[in-house]
């Protein structure tokens, strides 16, 4: 059963009803669900921050440039935990049953996820950190478009304003980097590096939208189990072809081992926890929340790498949080059938032709309930 998010117009106040105070309006916007959603998104950002810090230590202090090997470790963990869970299941959720029905879809999704990680990590060798941070935001419009056309998600003006504020916050952060001269990672082929970031962001958007569809319509364990199976297989092949020489150059000791273990732990937690958050929210909301990860990395860099501080970083953080609050303050809705979307849009004209309701009988103008899985079922749309 797939539900359509309810959209209810505000009921008119009676002549003796007092207007809500500013405090009441703020409490209505900053509801418990919204605060929980923001907190879950920031947990994901902190995990991404941990991934970035361990990668920086490996690349800068130990000259271990092994992005494929690092991803391979994560996929192996997913395989050991979630693929084995599918293998011992009974019924339609069994590993063999899933492979018989849709193995090729998960194979393509696994390759997309692998290459998205690889392209963005490889781009750091060719372009600047600021370019990576800015161009990586290309995943936001990709997710918005894919969600609109393939998941049939419909947005309101407040969602676009919120997303725009988040992108403005990232622009503010990148501007602070440029003013402070933080241009790490500049290579001789900057255009090539920028194209790698755009390609990686596009693949991230495809992967995230597919992930949202799977965790909301099938199961989180199925998605992670299939990622572990095909991810470990194809990343292992890519590792053997492209990075076997790099692994031989790594000066192995307990410190490097600890960094690899930490990276794998952060990555595994991110992959395991993201479907939980995505099932509660959406791919767009998750990617907007992850924009604060770069700021957390910068705040850690002030202590660990002695970065210069700028007040623009704090301003950027507050702008992004404000954008997240605006985006999460209003629900999206799903047009499961073109008639539903048409009904939603025509509500205003229909309401205008209906006789006005008496003050004693106040009802919402539109109510959407759950839509059944059968395409031939009558749409449960009620117009009061």
TrEMBL record:
One of its GO terms (cellular component) is membrane. Pfam families: SLC35F. Keywords: Membrane, Transmembrane, Transmembrane helix, Transport. It is a multi-pass membrane protein. It comes from the Eukaryota. The chain crosses the membrane at residues 34-53, 73-91, 103-121, 133-153, 160-180, 192-211, 223-242, 254-274, 286-307, 313-335. Its main location: membrane. The keyword Transmembrane helix applies. It is found in: Membrane. Residues 348-384 are annotated as: Disordered. One of its GO terms (molecular function) is transmembrane transporter activity. Belongs to the SLC35F solute transporter family. Putative solute transporter. This is Solute carrier family 35 member F1. It comes from Betta splendens. The gene is slc35f1.
